[in-house]
Amino acid sequence: MTDPTTPVSPDGRATTPAADSRFFRPPLPAGHLPRPRLCARLAEGLDGRLLLVSAPAGFGKSSLAIEFCEGLPARWRSLWVALTPRDADPGRFLERLLEGLRTFFPDLGENALGLLKLRQRHQPFGFEEWLDGLLDELAGRLDPAAPLLLALDDYHLARGAVLDRCLQFLLNHLPAGLVLLVTSRQRPDWHLARLRLNRHLLELQEQDLRLNAEEGAALLASHGARLDPDGQECLLRRSEGWVAGLRLWLLAGRDGAVPDGTPGEPSGAEGLIRDYLLEEVIERLPAEVQAFLYQTACLERFCADLCDAVRDSHDSAAILRHLQAHQVFLVPLDEQGEWFRYHQLFSDLLRARSPQPQAGAHLRACRWFSAHGLLDEAVEQALRAGQPDVAASLVQNLSEEQLLAEQNVAMLLRWKTDLPDSLLASTPRLIMLYGWALALACQLDAAEELGAQLARFLPAPEPAVQQGLLAQWMALSGVIARGRGDLARAEAYCGEALAALPADRYGQRLLCLSALANMAVARGDLWRARGLNRDALELAQRVGNPLFEALARYDRARVLQARGEVLRALDEVRLGHARLRDLPARRFYAARARLTLYEGYLQALRLNPESARRLLLAGVAEARECRDGSLLIGHCVLAGLEGREGRFAAAFAHLAEAERLMHIWDVPPIYYLAMVTLSKCELWLAQGQLELAEAWLVRLADTYGGDRPAAAPESHPQLALHIDLQHALLARQKGEAAEAERRLRALLQRAGASGGELLAQKVRLHLALLRRERGDDEEARGLLLAALDASGGGALLPFAGLLRQQPDWLRDALQAPGGCSGHGGRAGAWAGGDPSARADLRDELLACLPARETDPPATAGDVATGSTETLSGRERAVLRLIAQGCSNQEISDRLFISLHTVKTHARHINSKLGVERRTQAVARAQTLGLLD
């Protein structure tokens, strides 16, 4: 219980006496932004010994500590000790500590205090022995029911070797009922690893204290800052979660320096931030460390070896260790602690105040990056040094195979703006490199014009060289022709290129195979596309390039999806991701972006909207960094997800963003306009805007149908079939049932002839709905069973209409005697194939259906008498993973089912086993032998 001498606040909470200003805890500053998520994390450490908050200046350490102390549970007391440089003397610190403790325990340490006052600073003093006696006495006074939090603020001001040892001793012998909270700009030299191992330490560092997007926006809003979305995003990105940076910006705005809606940093804030950093950080460092900061400020990222090369010295590793220890706005870039960068605002200040020209430093950095095989950064440094000829020479060292594997064209196109046109066309190698970069960026006219420059180097002095140049030109021309929709010309060029390209030009061979496979899908020949995919995958595996293998598996997944084999497509995507696992995380790759996007699309087909949205957003972000057109797929699928959940404004916003980026990137409309328009038509139909949808569907049908249809774009090779499907759905919504049925039956025949089983599955289910509405239950059931028979590949999204509009009818069909063993002439179709796949599909669809209120729950007795038959195959699979300790999300990922479906299965399992919790279900299942 609380000590009777302890002052108590009106609400009953024990407090430190207000009269003793030495231990006054300051109030929260005006305009403080609450950090409840961080306070909650600190509260988790109250069962330990040490709460450590370490970060550079201005990250809100003290404010967080104050907020945490103010929000302590009622039984807790707190003692606030604000440290100063004078407390570096251990005797003075311990004297202050004891006097602070005596405000709670007045007669504590009478003899100990006398010993401290009698000591002579020039004489040795046994601090650890003194502490040992004090802690023994304190242990008898502390009440675990009323624990005490000792807050040491700004420990970096007082720390030293002797004081560090004193505090380490204190931590090692801390009595029950006392916990330390320490804030510091640098991590103390204590045995933190031992404390962490024993779960006595909870530590918050710079990355934890950074404001997240929501907190940054809340801080701006609380101060009335009026910025447009782009301006706010820019400001939050540049501040990197630095609380002081945002507050200084707001302070400048209060003085009238912040114009509304301006995305840049106001001049007033610039001066405040500069003064703050100079006074609080830079000018407090040793002269040699300040010189290091200015010499390396020109580097976007750096390691000790690179800094040595730029500075022509050998002490960079030691200085970096000093900067790490003192947390001088150094941001680590890897787990090994090898690479770093400076905080953006700190870096800006260093560059602006650097007393020496940077061209020489950039050139030395260029040589270092080049020697270490980091070509892209070497080129960037050469351009910053004002040496475009050096940059062009380095670009020539980039092989076409590397470019075609990574397909990060944003980097090459950025260099292109800084290189003179005469340099770009100075060698066949540069022409081909930039020709491919422009083609991959969909800038077809520019790519074709640059490719024509190869004629200047023909005839070549040697026949082999001439044949190689012509073969490369044909490969490039074939890909450009595919982009323009000229399929005949594209097939001819790609075929000739494959016959003539040397074996070492495997990157261009793979792009030709990819283009030919895409055109085969557009022509409805999925079997040929499958063969071309196989050839590409074998070639990629033969050369051992993980990026090419990932791209080949992406193409293969797209064809498998079109054939309805969604689970196999997911396997291909994950195999592709596995090949990329060892690539540097800090770089962006088109292959990884495409795989992530397509995995999101496949999860949408599996009715896993949460996983789909997460993957799609990640894929869009990486594709945007690579300037890869695959983000179009991501935005269109995201629009579909939002539309199915009734969020039409968000859906159209995704499509608008896709169009905006395509326009900015100068992508020809043939690449994206039809796909975006079709997505809009689907949304308009869902909204009931039939006239608008019909007007644009007619235009699309005129372009991609009829006697001389335009070729489908690369991003949607089955576009024409999907236009026909939307036309049929339009007719159905207009009440033209006969016309809708005619269109659907014709489309079913076309899809079946091309092997497009996923589309055929969608058509059958729309027909089933239509026949059901027209009273023909027998044919509707036959169409449903035919669709079920084709759904072993794992696609669930085509059933969404039945799940939403005919749940009871669908449940009856799935639960009919014999499961779905056939009906109305369809027994053979559903009875064939993989029985476990059929059972899984049945279970997944039943799990997606809402439970009938009239369905009685199963009892434990039912399970006992019915043995394992009362648990479905999918429920047994879920139960086995539960027994292995898997979370619901892990079960979702491993079984390719949605989180909602996992939870539904878990509820059914508990109901059937007559239990309430997972652990009870496992125990009951083991008793009944269900997990053997």
Give me a quick take on this structure:
The chain is mainly α and 932 residues long.
Structure description:
This protein has 932 residues and is mainly alpha-helical. Among the domains are: 36-209, Rossmann fold (3-Layer(aba) Sandwich); 410-644, Serine Threonine Protein Phosphatase 5, Tetratricopeptide repeat, CATH 1.25.40.10; 673-817, Serine Threonine Protein Phosphatase 5, Tetratricopeptide repeat, CATH 1.25.40; 873-928, Arc Repressor Mutant, subunit A, CATH 1.10.10.10. It is built from 49 helices and seven strands. A five-stranded parallel beta sheet has the order 2-3-4-1-5, with helices on both faces. Strands 6-7 form a two-stranded antiparallel ribbon. β3 (148-153), α6 and β4 form a beta-alpha-beta unit. α18 packs antiparallel against α19 (388-395) and α21 packs across α23. It starts with 35 loop residues before the first helix and ends with a helix. Residues 1-20, 251-270, 818-833 and 853-869 have low confidence and may be disordered.
Topology readout:
Layout (H helix, E strand, L loop, with lengths): L35 H9 L5 E5 L6 H10 L6 E6 L7 H13 L7 H9 L8 H15 L6 E6 L7 H12 L5 E7 L7 H6 L3 E4 L1 H4 L3 H10 L6 H11 L3 H12 L12 H14 L6 H10 L7 H8 L4 H11 L3 E3 L7 E3 L1 H10 L5 H13 L3 H10 L3 H8 L4 H7 L2 H8 L4 H4 L3 H13 L3 H9 L10 H22 L2 H14 L5 H17 L3 H18 L2 H17 L3 H14 L10 H16 L3 H18 L4 H14 L3 H17 L4 H19 L2 H15 L14 H15 L3 H18 L2 H17 L3 H13 L10 H6 L1 H8 L12 H5 L3 H14 L11 H7 L6 H11 L4 H8 L3 H15 L4 H11 L4
